[in-house]
Design a protein that fits this description.
The chain is of the alpha/beta class. It has 23 helices and 18 strands.
Length: 546
């Protein structure tokens, strides 16, 4: 059969149901093969939109999302989504076109070394040079992309290879099973935990990637060891728990870090050093038990003394069974820290100032969103406020990127969450800067018939960098801009636009939007002056009783 038909059949065998794409001339054979297949093509308005949607598909399903672009500029526009998936641990397959490789068709027009370009940010980057290699390369691409630690894979299909005849058969995928934890490692960890005077559990992004919730909840609530999480580990264990101390949104200096600095042992489950460090190790300081699918990547601030390697759920369950009940130690200090954190996070939740302060809009959005509803955050100042102040109740209900931390991913990520979860409320939350980087995907969202509410937090500037600029002692300069009328902008695509004009209107506006269904954009004018008071002045003035 034709190689492009074989390629699509291999994708179908892997269970692919959608491909997100901006096709080009070099993809036309693939496009025709897709037309005759069971796979649905989702045409986006920019390759970044396709890549971010496919990566989020991988994040939410644990199955590789697939996107497609043409050669040259189409392929290079997938570089940011590739890095997003690479650092964020999201399974992603990228298919790119290329000019014929058997004979020159247009000289070097649009030709760059795409395979070499993507190699540093992919688990595999390959050009297909013969149609008969397609089944094995597709199988290997999915295996590599999906196994821990997940990431991006690129397959380049030149147009002459796509059109050639081939005879190879499809390879049937099989389920991957991870090995269980080592008994000696478990005993070593149990000895460390029972000897600790102030142990803490840290939950990282890896625990959100696989089905670890039940095992983690059993470990926490059986041992009664307090826990905290990273930004990408939010929701694995319900953050309403009395044992939850907070999210490590800042690298140091927050109220939570009083507890982290007092701890003498951290049981670090599902975290790696790609996510911004939630704590810093020092020689002679606290001990760390690393629990993950793979061994720890050691660097200057992370060098664990003990490791439990294997299937994460199995490891956590085995550790709980070995501990055999509640771990005895004095929790009084951690209780004091939790009380201080909870009181701190309540401040400003009912503040009526307008433009709206972060504490108020985070609190009101939490009231609007149900237990299993999903927020998808772009990158900006508000991400820190949501990480600190917004409690997650279920896994993968707070989608944020604390690895590449790219702007422009919030809207496509929210769109994918809405596609996969039509029975839940889904909200994409973007700053005005990040929203405008991929705002054209509003048209895609409407064409797909999604139910999605998009919040645009408007401060007419690149707010996070402006805050960093000020906190570093530089003049407030060079980071302000003008915006379109966001209500009219939304309406021009066929969405419904709303502009909040007082703090009291927030909840009613969202309820109206979600009740109506369809795509809605809500503009929230924000005042980030609280950044300095709360995140710099107040934290600097606090005293930890260590």
């Amino acid at each position: 059969m034709k190689a492009s038909d074989l390629f699509v059949q291999a994708l179908e065998a892997e269970g692919v149901d959608h491909i997100f794409a901006v096709p080009g001339e070099e993809n036309l054979d693939m496009l025709e093969s897709l037309r005759k297949s069971s796979i649905k093509l989702v045409l986006t308005r920019h390759e970044q939109g396709a890549g971010f949607m496919a990566a989020t598909y991988g994040r939410l399903t644990n199955k590789a999302g697939v996107c497609m672009a043409t050669l040259g500029p189409g392929a290079t526009n997938l570089a940011t989504p590739a890095a997003y998936a690479h650092l964020g641990g999201m399974p992603l397959i990228m298919i790119t076109g290329q000019k014929p490789i058997k004979k020159s068709k247009q000289g070097q027009f649009q030709i760059i070394d795409v395979v070499g370009l993507f190699d540093p940010i992919c688990k595999m980057s390959k050009q297909i040079v013969h149609g008969n290699t397609i089944p094995s390369l597709v199988r290997e691409a999915f295996r590599l992309s999906e196994e821990e630690r997940p990431g991006a894979v690129l397959l380049e299909l030149p147009e002459d290879i796509a059109a050639e005849d081939c005879t190879a058969g499809i390879m049937t995928p099989h389920k991957r099973h991870y090995a269980g934890p080592n008994e000696v490692a478990l005993e070593e960890a149990v000895t460390l935990i029972k000897a600790a005077k102030m142990p803490l559990i840290l939950i990282g992004a890896g625990a959100n990637r696989q089905n670890v919730r039940e095992a983690m909840c059993d470990l926490v609530h059986t041992t009664r060891i307090p826990f905290f999480d990273t930004q990408m580990g939010k929701g694995v264990v319900d953050e309403r728990s009395s044992l939850f101390l907070g999210t490590a949104a800042l690298s140091s200096g927050d109220y939570l870090h009083c507890a982290i600095e007092r701890a003498d042992l951290i049981i670090n489950i599902g975290h790696d050093v790609i996510e911004k460090p939630p704590f810093f190790m020092e020689q002679g300081g606290k001990k760390v038990i690393h629990v993950n699918y793979k061994s720890a990547k050691v660097d200057q601030v992370y060098f664990p003394q003990s490791e439990i390697i294997g299937d994460l759920a199995a490891s956590v369950t085995a550790l709980k069974d070995k501990l055999a009940g509640e771990v005895k130690f004095d929790r009084s200090y951690f209780d004091k820290v939790k009380l201080a954190i909870d009181e701190h996070l309540e401040e400003g939740a009912d503040d009526n100032r307008f433009p709206i302060i972060p504490q108020r809009f985070v609190a009101d959005i939490r009231k609007v969103m149900g237990e299993k509803d999903i927020i998808a955050l772009d990158n900006g100042m508000y991400k820190l406020w949501f990480a600190r102040n917004y409690k997650a109740y279920q896994p993968n209900t707070v989608l944020l990127d604390n690895a590449l931390a790219t702007m422009g991913a919030g809207l496509p990520s929210g769109m994918m969450a809405a596609m996969l979860n039509p029975d839940r409320r889904v909200m994409a939350i973007c700053g005005d800067g990040g929203f405008m980087m991929n705002s054209q995907e509003l048209e895609t969202a409407i064409r797909l018939g999604l139910n999605l509410v998009i919040t645009v937090l408007n401060d007419n500037s690149y707010g996070m960098i402006r805050w960093k600029q000020t906190s570093s002692g530089f003049a407030d300069w060079g980071l302000e801009f003008n915006n379109p009328d966001f209500v009219k902008y939304a309406e021009s695509y066929g969405a419904t636009g709303h502009r909040v004009t007082s703090a009291e209107d927030i909840i009613a506006t969202y309820e109206k939007a979600f009740s109506a269904g369809g795509v809605h954009l809500v503009e929230l004018p924000v005042d980030y002056s609280e950044n300095q008071r709360v995140l710099i002045d107040e934290l600097a003035a606090k005293v930890c009783l260590i």
